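Today's session is about reading a structure prediction critically. Students often jump straight to the picture, but the first step is always the sequence itself: look for stretches that repeat, for charged clusters, for runs of hydrophobic residues. Only then move on to the predicted structure, which in these notes is written as discrete structure tokens rather than atom positions. Here is the chain we will use throughout the hour.
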Amino acid sequence: MDPNGIPNGIGKAMKHLDLDGHELPPSPAPSSPSAGRKYALATELVYTESNDQFNSSSTPIYQSATFKGGPGQEYDYTRSGNPTRSHLERHLAKIMNANRALVVSSGMGACDVITRILKPGDEVVTGNDLYGGTNRLLTYLKENGGIIVHHVDTTTLESVQGVLMEKTAMVLLETPTNPLIKVADVAGIASAAHAANPSAIVAVDNTMLSPYLANPLDLGADVVYESGTKYLSGHHDVMAGVIGVNNVALGEKFYFMINSTGCGLAPFDSWLLLRGIKTLSVRMEKQQANAMAIAQFLESHGFKVRYPGLKSHPQYALHWSQARGAGAVLSFETGSIALSERIVEATRLFGISVSFGCVNSLISMPCRMSHASIDPATRKERALPEDIIRLCVGIEDLTDLVDDLSQALVRAGAVRLTENGFEALEHHSAGRTTQVVDEP
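Below is the predicted structure for this chain, in token form.
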């Protein structure tokens, strides 16, 4: 004890027990920004406070596995905590409207940490249009961990309410979904889940929007998580996952998992993510402006386009009631798998790749790439079109992007010439659809 009766040294170290009674090092510098946001979000993304001894303009990288000193110091081993990671977590908590943020080595790592609180016999309610990796993890838990998983259409509250019960331990939502761009009523579902079981955890994957466009915790979610690899980084040069919570006990449980399994984000990766977050505002504004223009371009030429920025989206009003933007991911259909393949292969500026949120524009066929781990029968059951093309729009010049898409559509034979230019072979307008038959 010091003269004021405050534990120090060994006494301070031994005083800490986590929520389950384990004598483990405390979570270093838990996030909880005392003053919350002070400025507009675009400013907060850039503005960070640091007590670095040399007043460095950029947060230092503490590239160290260990820290000298005795028991009770804030940092001892980077698996348990690192100053660079702590700074990132405090910054993320601020922009996510969270009491606490935690960062791990990937978006799926974040999902894994969250689902580790489930026990055999627990029931999980989730969507029928899930990211392939999430679907793979839940399938594993169902087949090996005794977890019961209900896949439902999360676009209707009634469908979700139909499977909610006292045994529902978790509701796992994606909104908008990828690649069908379905929108879930986060507030409505969270309220229904907590009514069915007050202890149920509502976790929302916010990767498709980022904290810049949506804050699910404000809508009643218990957990928000996302792949920091996408918009938060913006350059596809770092793998990261982010978890945000308001409940202190839940935050400690997640930290226990991270510390136990060693999946916390490395110092250099933490620094890269901090750097990427600073430009999130300017990147997202440009990306979604480009995405909106491309969605309108494709729709005006007769393609069936899925994008929440379009008023033709069936859940346009719901999306804008809980988000500040539409994001930069859209999908469209051609009516033919072979035709879609030719379009994807004919683009030049759009890189053929999985993932999204990068400054570079990307194109893919999800059923052949990001969602290939979902078996064809399940994809058919969930009405995931095999011909669907996903566009992840970047910050390039809009005219160049539209020109690239136009030449790809023409070279692939996906359009027919008209007096006003061209239109899709399978034209979706005025209730008329001309079907394209796949080539043998």
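Discussion point for the tutorial: The two ends are 81 Å apart (CA to CA).
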